[in-house]
């Protein structure tokens, strides 16, 4: 391996973003943030790295295994590189903005770094954008977050969007109804998450029968809710079923075009959620576009938010057509360049005089050249 190729070798899961993809991603992020802002979500900018005890407190505890840690040479305290920005926004809401009126609406965008990727998302560093509704009002807040996430993705050009709804706290509530202990509840949750009907039989006939009914619920929302309604639930499990029905009704009223699926047994990836949660997908796009749901920030306030993963989102979009790129031969008046850029041109200035200006323009990937006081298209 040569010295040059060795320097180009990067760690697994991280990579350079080159033209024009880097500019396209930046434009997409700003369009997402603009959409969030239009709905009253004010942007915040958390640091890339912070002390471990604050980064991994509250909902951040679920991300401990995904966090890179380093020692701060100044304070001699351990620090963590953020694996997710949601937990940082939750910290800001609980501390710096503790006295701000509720519900508090905040948005963000930035890079995150994780210890390992997944099969569907091998990337370990990627851009994340999202928003959080702190102090949200139950199902109405959940519906606002879900429908705004769908609206923002539609505005940047993502088509064939579907939303998978789940309830990470539902299976524990069903287990409590059945009188299952912590170990059996963990086994039930794992079996439902893996869609392993055979593993449920080890929990006893009564528990296996009811949990198998829960397993069969997964599917399109209308069919799933009918199946869920037929299950004999009591107490907390029945209340959560009501929350899910209410939320689906609110989403249908606001966005009847959205494709909704329901899987009440799904848990993996929603470890810190405390209520209805969701995943965003697009047809024929690898990996989820984003995830969100209800949780509590460190001071106990309820919140609902969503994180959009730009690596997946960019796979759902086509590269934009190249813009007008004009070559300004050496000696072009400065004010001519100012006028062209004000008119929307991207200009590349020649730094030396060349005999074949048109050839130089083509070499520099320009579509036009400035001649005789105006731009002309290159053949």
Keywords:
single chain, 379 residues, alpha+beta, BirA Bifunctional Protein, domain 2, 3 domains, 9-stranded mixed sheet, 37% helix, elongated
Task: Provide a concise account of the structure shown.
The chain is α+β, with helices and mostly antiparallel strands and 379 residues long. The radius of gyration is 26 Å and the shape is elongated.
Distance between the termini: 41 Å
Report the order of strands and helices: HHEEHEEHEEHEHHHHEHHEEEEHEHEHEE
Q: Portion of residues in helices? A: 25-40%
Beta strand count: 16
The CATH architecture assignment of the largest domain turns out to be 2-Layer Sandwich
Number of helices: 14
Shape: elongated
Mean pLDDT: 92
Quote the CATH topology of the largest domain: BirA Bifunctional Protein, domain 2
Q: Tell me the fraction of residues in β-strands, as a range.
A: 15-25%
Q: Can you identify the CATH superfamily of the largest domain?
A: Bira Bifunctional Protein, Domain 2
Please tell me how large the radius of gyration is. 26 Å
């Amino acid at each position: 391996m040569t010295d040059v190729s060795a320097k180009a070798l990067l760690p697994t899961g991280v990579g350079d973003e080159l033209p024009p993809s880097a500019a396209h991603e930046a434009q997409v992020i700003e369009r997402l943030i603009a959409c969030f802002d239009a709905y009253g979500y004010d942007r915040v900018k958390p640091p890339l790295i912070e002390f471990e005890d604050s980064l991994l407190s509250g909902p951040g505890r679920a991300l401990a295994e995904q966090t890179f840690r380093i020692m701060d040479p100044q304070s001699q305290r351990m620090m963590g590189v953020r694996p997710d920005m949601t937990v940082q926004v939750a910290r800001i809401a609980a501390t710096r903005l503790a006295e701000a009126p509720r519900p508090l609406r905040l948005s963000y965008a930035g890079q995150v770094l994780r210890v390992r990727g997944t099969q569907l998302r091998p990337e370990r560093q990627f851009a994340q954008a999202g928003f959080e509704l702190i102090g949200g009002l139950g199902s109405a807040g959940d519906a606002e977050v879900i429908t705004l996430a769908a609206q923002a993705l539609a505005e940047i050009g993502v088509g064939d969007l579907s939303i998978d709804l789940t309830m990470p706290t539902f299976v524990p509530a069903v287990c409590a109804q059945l009188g299952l202990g912590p170990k059996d509840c963990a086994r039930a949750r794992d079996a439902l998450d893996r869609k392993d009907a055979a593993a449920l039989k080890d929990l006893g006939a009564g528990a296996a029968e009811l949990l198998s009914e829960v397993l069969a619920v997964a599917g399109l929302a209308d069919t799933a809710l009918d199946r869920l309604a037929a299950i004999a639930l009591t107490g907390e499990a029945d209340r959560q079923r009501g929350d899910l029905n209410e939320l689906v009704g609110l989403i249908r009223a606001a966005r009847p075009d959205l494709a909704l699926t329901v899987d009440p047994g799904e848990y993996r990836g929603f470890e810190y959620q405390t209520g209805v949660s969701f995943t965003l997908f697009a047809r024929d796009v690898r990996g989820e576009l984003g995830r969100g749901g209800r949780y509590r920030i460190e001071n106990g306030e309820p919140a609902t938010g969503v994180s959009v993963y730009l690596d997946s989102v960019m796979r759902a979009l086509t590269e934009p057509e190249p813009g007008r790129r004009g070559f300004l031969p050496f000696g072009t008046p400065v004010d001519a360049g100012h006028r062209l850029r004000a008119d929307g041109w991207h200009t590349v200035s020649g730094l030396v005089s060349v005999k074949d200006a048109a050839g130089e323009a083509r070499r520099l990937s320009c579509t036009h050249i400035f001649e005789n006081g105006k731009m002309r298209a290159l053949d």
